Automatic annotation (TrEMBL):
<feature type="transmembrane region" description="Helical">
    <location>
        <begin position="110"/>
        <end position="133"/>
    </location>
</feature>
<dbReference type="InterPro" id="IPR050922">
    <property type="entry name" value="LytR/CpsA/Psr_CW_biosynth"/>
</dbReference>
<dbReference type="Pfam" id="PF03816">
    <property type="entry name" value="LytR_cpsA_psr"/>
</dbReference>
<dbReference type="InterPro" id="IPR004474">
    <property type="entry name" value="LytR_CpsA_psr"/>
</dbReference>
<feature type="transmembrane region" description="Helical">
    <location>
        <begin position="44"/>
        <end position="64"/>
    </location>
</feature>
<protein>
    <submittedName>
        <fullName>LytR family transcriptional attenuator</fullName>
    </submittedName>
</protein>
<feature type="compositionally biased region" description="Low complexity">
    <location>
        <begin position="442"/>
        <end position="472"/>
    </location>
</feature>
<keyword id="KW-1133">Transmembrane helix</keyword>
<comment type="similarity">
    <text>Belongs to the LytR/CpsA/Psr (LCP) family.</text>
</comment>
<feature type="domain" description="Cell envelope-related transcriptional attenuator">
    <location>
        <begin position="188"/>
        <end position="361"/>
    </location>
</feature>
<feature type="region of interest" description="Disordered">
    <location>
        <begin position="434"/>
        <end position="489"/>
    </location>
</feature>
<feature type="transmembrane region" description="Helical">
    <location>
        <begin position="84"/>
        <end position="103"/>
    </location>
</feature>
<feature type="transmembrane region" description="Helical">
    <location>
        <begin position="20"/>
        <end position="37"/>
    </location>
</feature>
<keyword id="KW-0472">Membrane</keyword>
<keyword id="KW-0812">Transmembrane</keyword>
Length: 489
């Protein structure tokens, strides 16, 4: 008689209870049931496999955590991980069932037999559900990743894994907030900020342009040929503001020939802002502000500090001052409202809102709301950042979270008058901002009243934005970036 057979031969409730208890132990630590039943070779192999998997997972989480973040943005590895998780679930369920089989008493009543099978089914279910959920989450994440980030971006750009930023000291990403309201035709990019990121340290400068900037030149080519003296819009409803360029390109394919629909707007706006700042624009990210509310709701809200009452909704409600947790709809009003303030105050709130979301999107929040977040991101985000660049950008984001400095410079009145902008000043301040050590930046407010030395507009071109007050005494602007942390309440 083999070791353990005497125990198996004992029927009744005691033998069944013991078998189920050891089956549960074997579900938690593979091989326990086989070793107790005298099947030491099989039990030892299962235990070794289990400890090997556990050790590998522990080592990966402890010593290779940063590498895991980089691997998490590689779709081909995510697909393999999803398959591996499913295989793990199948093996685990098999271990549970087989563990019960080697310990189950041979003489059981019909009731005990059904009870034992039901208990094992519950154990299998308890094992299968989290593994299946993990595999499903991995698949959903991969699907969202490949839907938002295409291989090669939108232009098939090749990325060198050894030098993903092509030897550049900085990568410049245009962050766009698109306001595609139901009562509006097309998309207006009411939020336009260039994030200029040091590729070695992660230090970042946010350069914000107002939506109502006028008198700017479009890039050389068909667009410049159509508007040789600066962009003047497309009829009386579009006076020639910066936030109109995106939709103008989508509506007029001939100004960006050869570029497909839904890529014309980003292409022309990137080139236009590159000319305004005299700064290379590498990539863009467009966020649909209405879909953005879904992301915030999926996170369970976002906590911000409101300094002044902000009208909310169409029924006279108000977001009161104080530290508040806002729903998606409330956050949308917080970021978009101009009532009682201005475009420029709103620009500051939008940046602080984005900073709060980035800070509060912790792993626990992401995991518990993963499906909702992935679905909202697919509806809300579009970009030309290629998949192949994501590992390098994840590494940069690690630097940002580990203490990299984030500074902000807004080209708004009184530093820059939007209807009569000084483009030479904008370009000089941009060059200074991206070349200055960000840790030497003071927290003083940026800018003081300044005249426009260079209008960038030909005589006779209309101006609808604010201009410098008549008789204002010129004074030299500071135009220094400020720490984003210091500027957000």
């Amino acid at each position: 008689m083999r070791e353990g057979d005497g125990d198996r031969s004992s029927g009744g409730a005691g033998g069944l209870s013991r078998a189920l208890a050891l089956t549960l132990a074997s579900a938690l630590v593979w091989g326990v049931a086989h070793i107790v039943a005298g099947r030491r070779l099989a039990g030892g192999l299962l235990l070794a496999l289990y400890l090997g998997l556990l050790a590998s997972a522990g080592a990966a989480a402890t010593f290779f955590r940063s590498d895991l973040l980089h691997l998490a943005v590689r779709p081909e590895l995510l697909e393999r991980l999803s398959v591996a998780l499913l295989a793990l679930g199948v093996v685990w369920v098999f271990v549970v069932i087989r563990s019960y089989q080697v310990l189950r008493p041979p003489r059981l009543s019909a009731v005990a037999h059904v009870s034992g099978a039901a208990a094992v089914a519950v154990m299998c279910f308890a094992v299968a559900v989290p593994v299946a959920w993990s595999a499903h989450g991995t698949y959903v994440y991969r699907d969202a990743l490949t839907s938002i980030f295409r291989s090669g971006g939108t232009n098939g750009k090749q990325v060198d894994a050894d030098d993903p930023f092509d030897g550049q000291d900085r990568v410049n990403i245009l962050l766009l907030g698109g306001d595609a309201a139901e009562d509006r035709s097309g998309v207006r990019t009411d939020s336009m900020t260039v994030a200029s990121i040091d590729t070695r340290t992660g230090d970042t400068v946010l350069l914000s342009l107002p939506r109502n900037l006028e008198g700017f030149q479009l890039p050389p080519g068909p667009a410049r040929d159509r508007f040789p003296y600066g962009f003047t819009g497309d009829g009386p409803q579009t006076p020639g503001l910066l936030n109109e360029v995106f939709q103008y390109a989508e509506d007029h394919p001939d100004v960006v020939p050869g570029v497909p629909k839904n890529e014309r707007g980003p292409e022309l706006l990137k080139a236009t802002i590159a000319g305004i700042l005299d700064l290379r624009i590498d990539y863009y990210i467009l966020v649909d502000m209405f879909g953005f509310a879904d992301i915030i709701d999926a996170m369970g809200g976002v906590e911000v500090t409101i300094e002044q009452p902000i009208p909310y909704g169409l029924e006279g409600a108000v977001l009161e001052p104080g530290r508040r947790t806002l729903t998606g709809k409330e956050a949308l009003w917080y970021g978009r409202s101009r009532t009682g303030s201005s475009d420029y105050v709103r620009m500051g709130r939008q940046k602080c809102l984005l900073a709060a979301i980035a800070e509060q999107a912790d792993p626990q929040t992401v995991l518990t709301s993963f499906d909702k977040l992935a679905a909202a991101a697919k509806r809300t985000l579009s970009t030309d950042i290629p998949q192949e660049l994501l590992p390098a950008l994840v590494k940069l984001s690690d630097e940002v979270k580990n203490g990299a400095q984030i500074n902000s410079l807004q080209f708004v009145p009184p530093l820059i008058y939007t209807g009569n902008p000084d483009f030479d000043l904008i370009r000089r301040l941009t060059a200074e901002a991206v070349s200055t050590d960000p840790r030497q930046v003071s927290g003083a407010p940026a800018g003081s009243p300044s005249p426009s030395a260079s209008t960038g507009r030909s005589p006779g071109t209309p101006s609808t934005g604010p201009s410098q007050p008549s008789g204002a005494e010129p004074s030299k602007p500071s135009g220094k970036p400020v720490s984003l942390q210091d500027s957000c309440p």
